[in-house]
Amino acid sequence: MKPSTRSNVQPFRVMQMLDRVHRRRREGKDTLMFCAGQPLTGAPEAVIEEAEIALRSGPLGYTEVIGDREFRERIADWHSATYDVDTNPDNVIVTTGSSGGFVASFIATLDHGDYVAMPTPGYPAYRNILESLGAKVLNLRCTAETRFQPTAQMLEELPHKPKAVIVTSPGNPTGTIIDPEELERIAKWCDDNDAVLISDEDYHGMSFGRPLATAHQFSKNAIVVGTLSKYFSMTGWRVGWIIVPDELVTPIENLQASLSLCAPAIGQAAGRAAFTLEAGAELDAHVEAYREAREVFVDKLPEIGLGTFADPDGGLYLWVDVSAYTDDSEEWALRLLDEAGVAVAPGVDFDPEEGHKWIRLSLCASKEDTIEGVRKIGEFIKK
Fold this sequence. Notes:
Blueprint: H1 13-26, E1 32-33, H2 45-57, H3 69-83, E2 92-95, H4 97-109, E3 115-120, H5 124-132, E4 136-141, H6 152-156, E5 164-168, H7 180-192, E6 196-200, E7 223-227, E8 240-243, H8 246-259, H9 265-271, H10 277-300, E9 309-310, E10 317-321, H11 329-340, E11 342-343, E12 345-346, E13 358-362, H12 367-382
Parallel strand pairs: 1-11, 3-4, 3-5, 5-6, 6-7
Antiparallel strand pairs: 2-8, 7-8, 9-10, 10-13, 12-13
Helix pairs in contact: 2-9, 4-5, 4-8, 10-12
């Protein structure tokens, strides 16, 4: 059978690298993993306790299509308190991870042939999903000059007016945080130009000191995307959410009824506890561990000849220039894994034009493993 044209998208190389890590470990080969934004800490203890109760107290059948009401209220309360905004649970839609939220948002707001502006380097799944839906991607070239974040001026200079604009802060793969004033300018540009702002806030909660703003502080027309995966350390539970304007609630509810029926019930039931003070204290301690990994990379990478990188303000990643050693970061990353047992993400996933010069490192490993990883990368470079 011939595959559809729309299925002809680029592979997600990060996940391919993660598969290789799992395969090596099954074979008993020592492997240090810096390729994926997967916290190694696991869900907070309060969430695990809540999951055990939920598993024994009922059948865990389908929830409401847009999510368990109590869980949506917890999300809305947390969002309101964190950013000093008024978030209505009626506008919160629970999805199968934030990935499900992006799919639903794109289908609900875009038609075939519409233009979408997104940062480059940026998360590859945006591009792959958009292209499969027939949207046309406009790259917002982000460099150190703008701290690898887009600006409203970039939108003004685009050759076509986008129907949607995507921002990610903290960035993936860069870890940089967009200044609140710039986010406000982008939100205003979108409102003035009838474009929907889709704000990927998956890594909120993970700042190393720089202020984080939500798009809803500046526009109620924006779609805000969140997840339990990153800060809340629950990647495999596959629970995320989108906060949407009133006019999108019913269309997305109707789409979700056919796309996924509902997000995983166990994740919603247990996820209520993720927003408690007890869980927050545990999760904030994780952020301090990511900060330690960041400090190791920032201090030690220049010593092994990797001194050009995006200095991360938060999130889980470091974007590193390896052009002094290769013009094919994918091949370089595969050799690094095979020869040194260190897994990194090749930059071509995040930047189809310049990514062959870059790699992405994750901050999820322990301080000790991060030190060892840098040592092994240094030895590999010297060969």
